[in-house]
Amino acid sequence: MRPRIGITLSTDTAYAGYRLRKDYCHCLLGCGGSPLLLPDLPETLAEEALDGLEGLLLSGGGDFPPQCYGMGSFQAPTARDLWELALLRAAWQRGLPILGICRGCQGLNIALGGDLIPDLPRAGGYGQHQQQQARQQRSHMVELLHPRLQQLYGRKQLWVNSFHHQGLGKLAPGLLPAALAPDGLCEAVLSREDGRFALGLQWHPEALQELPPFLALLKAARKYMKQKQTDFIDVL
User: Fold this and answer.
1) Are 203 and 99 in contact (CB under 8 A)?
2) Mapping DSSP to helix (H, G, I), strand (E, B) and coil, where does residue 30 land?
3) Helix or strand or coil: residue 64?
4) In this predicted structure, what is the pLDDT of residue 233?
5) Residue 150 backbone phi and psi in degrees, to 5
6) Does residue 33 contact residue 206 with C-beta atoms inside 8 Å?
7) DSSP-based three-state secondary structure for 190
8) How far apart are CA 220 and CA 10, in angstroms?
9) Angle ∠(55,186,78) on CA atoms, nearest 5
10) Cα 131 vs. chain centroid, distance in angstroms?
């Protein structure tokens, strides 16, 4: 049985619906997973939504308003903001494998107690993180800091794409910096616990058909699925 991976969706206001780039599903399917789409639901249903999953993938999208991380803002959190933060906290609590991509990486940090730099150009001192090239092209290098990420990619440096104007600020206590851009901005995070899979990437590996993060998520999801089956048998 393929591990079931829940994927969050962007809101399409023009269509009054949702949207998701096919690349996410293609990467999961190619790595042996079964993608299941998670539309915005009331926060109270987060636990129930995770019951049928072996992994959680937070997709890219728009900004989290500063109100989500205690900086104050006239912009209220959207249904997607609240839903994803509730999913992340519930997933973290139960040890569900998590992969956060771009916005999803930022959401992981917020959900666990970190914050963001709301606008990199306004903050000053940072390079270009909103490339003009196509999504399938790489625009800047990152240094992979952590041995786990170096082992995952088989290298210490990686060229990535970049489509964000917000960035990771103070990291949550449960996360470690795992990659740095040349300007010093944190571009990836990992769980501090070796036995827990939680990976946030500020770039878009799905657009690059970069499979290592998806393979790692599926490996952790299979382990989680096996543990669930063991726990079920023990209860019987």
Assistant:
1) no
2) helix
3) coil
4) 59
5) -60, -40
6) no
7) strand
8) 25
9) 55
10) 20
